[in-house]
Each structure stands twice: as structure tokens, then as C-alpha cells.
Design a protein that fits this description.
six-stranded mixed β-sheet, mainly beta, 3 helices
Length: 412
């Protein structure tokens, strides 16, 4: 009699849930009822499905099902109320439905679980495309408060370009032949690298020696000057404009170096040799940096580089100029102790040879006379410049010293 009751109960539930199932004889029985629908249309899936129920330990507790109905029956007792329904059907992605529910009815060894529905989603047809090239436009500059920030990666430069080529390409910036930089018409008083002074007073060293590919971004802003006279009216006090070159992360610590050598002759005199040589090296860490450079040439190049990125600057009206220069810059910034130190030493030896040739012809009755004279003038100059800066801060004040020395000697 008890067996018939269980059969009638199962038939009644199958009718109300529109699910068909069969029952096999057993001492205990679990019935899991659900319907399988399309995840987009929510219509019942009519195709054949592979269904099984798995308990929390991975044991199969049910794998009997009716075609297209989604009813699972198991003769053994389901002791845990947590189980998983695994459904596979053609044309749809496999679906795993985790359940944690209580049975609707438990009587005489019959447990009935009902799930509203399990949604199946069609398989997407995938196709391997040919190579696709995506292009995007980088923002060249942004305003962050009072700071202009340029993104170095947004500028297309030729291979081997130095910092001067990058600065020349910046919107609103202008690089003059003497190495001075203006931004929107305002003079840049200092060119810094990662927030620290770099060859103070001579931006050409960084402009002509620092490779453009090492730069991440360039910031232009007014740097607070604590040394200004506090008695001046506010409208007369103006902080100096600085350009701060921020290096990429991989170059914020390590060694950067470059060099160039060349030898040739003039077209009109093969014995008149022209030569040049230069070398630059910089070791940089977040705390300290040291940079050295040397340059020598007889190409009338009185600068380390031109604003167009080459190393030749001919001044035909100045005679023949041989330049030999070198420099060293050391910086240490100990932020925990609020102590910073910077020193720069630069020297230049310049030899200028100015040759003059005079040809004259005097017309006379008895015949013309000719004369020719040559003279050479030599001017040699030696320059030595040293700048230093030391800053120590305390909670109650600060101490700053900026000593400097200049030596110049001329000879004829």
C-alpha cells in the first residue's frame, strides 16, 4: 500500500510541473524535478539532453531522465541537501547548476526536490580572423592644475633623437639656438631631470646628450622659490618656470651612455682634417645621480649640439674654432634627513684662428705692381665654472647655501 502511495504522489507532481519521470522500485527515492529552457527565449528545449545529479562529494546521485523533460530520479537516499545538476545538450554550452534547497516533501522514504528552471545558452560560432591592426591617438599634453604635462610617447621622433628634438616638438615650446627654452613665450629658468637640477645653468648638456627614448613625460610648472623677498607685493612675486624631465621607470636607476666619433677632410684641401668626438655617461638612482661628458671638435661647433639634433654648428665668420669641453654633475637627495646637495663643474678650452689674406695691384705707367700679405690671429680662452647648492631642512627652519666660482683666461 505504501508503494502505491509513492507512485500516486510521483504522478501528481509530474503533472503539476510538466515534467515526466519514471520510478523504479527501491527502499528510498529522491525525485529532482526541473525544466530546461533557452537562456534567451526562455522556451523549453525540445532536444535530447544528458543530465546527471552529483552530490557535494562528486558522487553521482541521479542519471535517469526523460527525453526533453528534465526529470531526474534516484533510488538511493540523498542525505545532503547540496548537489549539482549537470546538463549537456546539442547546440548549447554545458551548464552546471548548483543547488542548495530543501525537499518539498519527505514521507515514507520519498524526497522531492523542485528547481524552477535551468537556462542553457547557445554555443557561439567562433572564427579565427586575420591579423588586425588597431590604431589609437595618444594625448600629447594635459593640464593638471598649473602644470603642463607632455606625454613623450605621443611624439613621433626619428631613431637616435636626443632630448632637444623632443623639446622642439612640444606644443607651445620653443628651443632657441643658444639653448634657451621658452614655453608659451615664458623663459624656462631651469631644466631638471626627475625633479633634480641637472648641469644647472646649461640645459644644452641634457638637451644634446639625453636620449629621447628614455623620457616618459615632461612637466612644466612654476617651482616655489623660498628665497624671494617676502616684503614684495604678491603680484610682483613670481615663481620661476622650470621644465622637469621624468625618465621611464626602467631608466630611473642604471647607466645611460652614448658617444660619437668622426674624421674627414675639406673639399678644397684634403690635408685639412676635420674631426669630432664626444662621450656622455650618467648613472642615476632615486637618491643620487652622477653625470659626465666630454666634447672636442674643430668644426666651429661652440655648442654641444644644435637644436635640430646634430652636432655640427658652422660659423664661417669666426675663423677656425677648436673646442674642447668637459663637465661633471653630482646630485644627492636624502629625503629622510631632508638634506640635498648638488654640484656642477664645467670647463671649456677654445682656440680661435683667424687668417687674413690681402691681394693688391697698383696701376703705374711703366707697369703694374702686385702685392700679397697674409696674417694669422690667435685667440685662446679657458673657462672654468663651478656651481654648488646645499639645502638642509628642519621642522623649525632651513639652511641653504649656493656657492659658485668662475675662472676665465684669455691669451693671444
Amino acid at each position: 500500500m505504501g508503494y502505491l502511495k509513492r507512485i500516486f504522489a510521483a504522478v501528481f507532481i509530474s503533472i503539476t510541473s510538466l515534467s515526466i519521470y519514471a520510478v523504479e522500485e527501491s527502499d528510498s527515492m529522491n525525485i529532482i524535478i526541473f525544466k530546461i529552457v533557452d537562456g534567451f527565449t526562455h522556451e523549453r528545449i525540445a532536444g535530447e539532453c544528458s543530465i546527471r545529479a552529483v552530490d557535494m562529494y562528486g558522487n553521482i546521485i541521479g542519471d535517469k531522465f526523460e527525453k526533453s523533460r528534465g526529470s531526474v530520479i534516484e533510488g538511493g537516499a540523498l542525505r545532503k541537501r547540496e548537489f549539482t545538476i549537470e546538463v549537456n545538450t546539442e547546440g548549447y554550452e554545458p551548464q552546471i547548476h548548483k543547488c542548495s534547497i530543501s525537499p518539498l516533501a519527505m514521507k515514507n522514504g520519498l524526497s522531492i526536490y523542485k528547481i524552477e528552471q535551468i537556462e542553457m545558452f547557445p554555443k557561439m560560432n567562433t572564427k579565427l580572423l586575420d591579423e588586425v591592426t588597431a590604431t589609437a591617438t595618444r594625448v600629447k599634453m594635459v593640464m593638471k592644475g598649473d602644470t603642463i604635462e607632455y606625454n613623450a610617447a605621443a611624439f613621433q621622433l626619428s631613431e637616435g633623437s636626443m632630448l632637444d628634438n623632443l623639446v622642439k616638438a612640444l606644443p607651445g615650446a620653443e628651443l632657441h639656438e643658444n639653448g634657451q627654452i621658452t614655453v608659451n613665450g615664458e623663459f624656462v629658468s631651469s631644466l631638471m631631470v626627475n625633479g633634480r637640477d641637472f648641469f644647472k645653468g646649461d640645459p644644452r648638456v641634457a638637451l644634446s646628450n639625453l636620449p629621447a627614448y628614455t623620457v616618459n613625460k615632461i612637466q612644466v610648472y612654476h617651482k616655489a622659490d623660498d628665497m624671494q623677498n617676502p616684503n614684495l607685493p604678491a603680484d610682483m612675486r613670481k615663481d620661476p618656470l622650470v621644465m622637469d624631465v621624468k625618465l621611464k621607470r626602467e631608466y630611473a636607476k642604471g647607466l645611460i651612455s652614448n658617444y660619437e666619433v668622426g674624421l674627414g677632410s675639406t673639399l678644397y684641401d684634403r690635408s685639412d682634417l676635420k674631426w669630432l668626438g664626444r662621450v656622455f655617461a650618467m648613472y642615476y638612482t632615486p637618491v643620487q645621480s652622477i653625470a659626465v661628458y666630454a666634447n672636442a671638435n674643430n668644426l666651429n661647433d661652440t655648442r654641444q649640439a644644435t637644436s635640430r639634433g646634430n652636432w655640427r654648428k658652422i660659423d664661417a665668420g669666426s675663423g677656425e674654432i677648436t673646442v674642447k669641453s668637459a663637465g661633471l654633475d653630482y646630485s644627492n637627495d636624502n629625503k629622510p634627513k631632508q638634506l640635498s646637495f648638488n654640484t656642477t663643474l664645467q670647463t671649456e678650452r677654445r682656440n680661435v684662428t683667424l687668417g687674413t689674406q690681402t691681394f693688391a695691384e697698383t696701376y703705374l705707367e711703366g707697369g703694374n705692381t702686385f702685392s700679397r700679405s697674409e696674417s694669422d690671429a690667435h685667440n685662446n680662452s679657458t673657462d672654468l665654472k663651478w656651481d654648488g647648492k646645499m639645502l638642509k631642512k628642519w621642522d623649525w627652519g632651513r639652511l641653504e647655501r649656493s656657492p659658485n666660482a668662475v675662472y676665465r683666461h684669455n691669451s693671444h
